[in-house]
Structure formats: C-alpha cells, structure tokens
Amino acid sequence: xxxxxxxxxxxxxxxxxxxxxxxxxxxxxxxxxxxxxxxxxxxxxxxxxxxxxxxxxxxxxxxxxxxxxxxxxxxxxxxxxxxxxxxxxxxxxxxxxxxxxxxxxxxxxxxxxxxxxxxxxxxxxxxxxxxxxxxxxxxxxxxxxxxxxxxxxxxxxxxxxxxxxxxxxxxxxxxxxxxxxxxxxxxxxxxxxxxxxxxxxxxxxxxxxxxxxxxxxxxxxxxxxxxxxxxxxxxxxxxxxxxxxxxxxxxxxxxxxxxxxxxxxxxxxxxxxxxxxxxxxxxxxxxxxxxxxxxxxxxxxxxxxxxxxxxxxxxxxxxxxxxxxxxxxxxxxxxxxxxxxxx
Length: 343
Description:
By secondary structure, this protein is an alpha/beta fold. It has helices spanning 2-25, 37-45, 62-65, 70-76, 91-103, 130-133, 137-148, 154-164, 167-171, 173-183, 206-215, 228-243, 257-260, 263-278, 287-292, 325-342; strands at 55-60, 80-85, 108-114, 184-185, 188-189, 248-251, 282-286, 306-307.
C-alpha cells in the first residue's frame, strides 16, 4: 500500500513540476521566432528590434494581423516596427500585454492600438491560447486572477490555462517554429490571401444578408452598449502610456462597407471617439467613420487624421472584417501617408 501511495505522490509531484516548467519556460522555445510577445522581448534585448529609441508596437487583434503590412510600415514609418497581434485581442488583453512588455524592459517609441469597436461589447477574456504559450508563469497567474472576476468557472479556466493549453504546440514546436518564421516578419503577416470573400453577398437581399451574417456569428456582436470593464481597460492603457511617456495612437482598420454603414457599428464608434477625445488621445479613422460620426467630432485636428480607403472594393476583403493581401497593402500605404502628413 505504501508503494502505491509513494507512486501516486511521485506522479503528482512530477506532473506538478512539468506543469510549472511548461508554464515558465515553454515561451523560450519561440524566442527567436518572427511572431509573438516573447519574440519581441528577446529580439529587443538582442538589439534586433531596438535602434536606441525603442520600438513602435502595433498592438491588437486579427484586425492588425490582417490589416497592417509590415513591409509598408518599415518603408514609411521611422524606427523599428513590430506587430503584436493575437486573435480576439480586447482592451483587457491589450493592457495586460503592454504591462508585461514594459515589465520585461522593452522601451516603446510609440504604441499604436487597434480601434476595434466590437471588442468593446464583450467581457474581458483571452481567446488566443498562443499568448499563454509565449508568456511566463507570473503573467498567467495575474491573467487568471483578473479573468476570474468575469467568469463563473475559474477552476475550469485554471485547468485550461495551466494544464491543457499549448500541449499540442509543445509536441510540434519544431514544425510550428519553421511555419511561424515563414509566415511572419516582425510580427507582421506575410501570407498571401486573395480578396472577394464577400462578393457573394453584394447582390443579396437584406433578408438573405441577415441570414448570412447569423451563420457567421455576427449576430453575437450586435450590442451597441460598451462593456464598462473593457472601457476601464482602455483608460488604464492610456494612463499606463502617459505614466511611461509613451505616445499612444488608436487606429481603426477598414471593415466592409455594409458593416461600417450599420447603425450599431456607427453607434459604437461614436462612443469610442468620445472616450478617446475625453482622454486627449490621438486616433485615425477610416473615411466612412469620419462621415458617419461627424456630429461627435469637434476636434479640428481629427479632420487630418482620416484614412482614405475603398471599403466597397470586394477585392480588398477576405470577409466582412478582414483585409486581403492587396487590401492590407493599400490600407497600410494610406495609413502611413496620413500619419506622415500629420507629423
């Protein structure tokens, strides 16, 4: 019986040690990859992403990963650029990533934040498990503690975050490493994606479009009211930047014309604009939003901070929210043109 208990105890201790090792050191496997927060930190301290003035970080969701072209940024924006994007990034995650990067000693020259209005309608959460593979144990503990305030099942979340998440990536990391390096540069997406993904919806009736949107889960992002917790994290991000003397700018990426024309999207954008103006933060809007939100914008400077883009060109989109390769390049050219104009 004692042998059985000893075996069980040994197995539990070994399992605990493996879990702790994974959660603290797995991040180092992708230290020299071309994507993710650990690669940014390692590259910065190795001098790869540090020219002495810090690094321009573009922090956001898939809107940035599919919307910003790293080669165009490198050509047109002064300094070193890095796109730090994870799927479903919301203001809560944005703040946590920023705090983590600063804690790790990364100097930020300018922070550009994803102005994604729909992310403001949901509870704070982390959708992309890759972030958990690329951060240390202390960060994950803080993340779990903060997210537990917004969850009914913190124990399940703990199990998912610390025990099961990333195990398949650990097993396949040599392949994953090579694929990641082939697909990304300085966090920027290099994959070629053809446009026209929404072409089949252009001639649809209103009823058919609504049905199509529901099939793609857009019925889940229809609220027009801000989540107060997400709003608080936008403010915390702004405060953290101001306290560390980091210039901060929000960037709206294009959505397909029919999305940008929706009352719910315009309503959210108006609320977001009010929040940014109240906190005296710079931001860039797509021309469509400038038009629909005109009554909310009294700052003359904003008239210059507008990005022209043909949101009705289906070749620029792979779906309602994400840009194709040609759309990504065109948008980034237009953004950097507006950015350099207002400097």
